[in-house]
Write a structure and sequence with these properties.
alpha+beta; three-stranded antiparallel beta sheet; 3 strands; 11% strand
Length: 81
């Protein structure tokens, strides 16, 4: 019984940290693009507003745009522009 409870607690801690991974950026700052590897991004929808006034589906897609264009785009806020 204690082993099951320990597994449940560990799972819940892991689940919470996995769910908050997309919020690794600071609003008004550069996204943490080193967290993402190419060629693709997760399909989660956690929109961010870039300093180019474009809404990106998530931080990773913003990072891909930065890599493609070579510009530094900051995150103004979480959510759409």
């Amino acid at each position: 019984m204690a082993l099951k409870a320990l597994r449940l607690v560990l799972f819940l801690v892991w689940w919470d940290s996995a769910g908050n991974a997309h919020q690794s950026y600071r609003e008004g700052g550069l996204p943490n693009c080193h967290h993402y590897t190419l060629p693709g991004c997760p399909r989660d929808f956690n929109p961010v507003c870039g300093s180019d006034l474009s809404t990106y589906p998530n931080e990773c897609t913003l990072c891909m745009k930065i890599r493609e264009d070579g510009r530094d785009i900051k995150i103004i806020r979480s959510g759409p522009c």
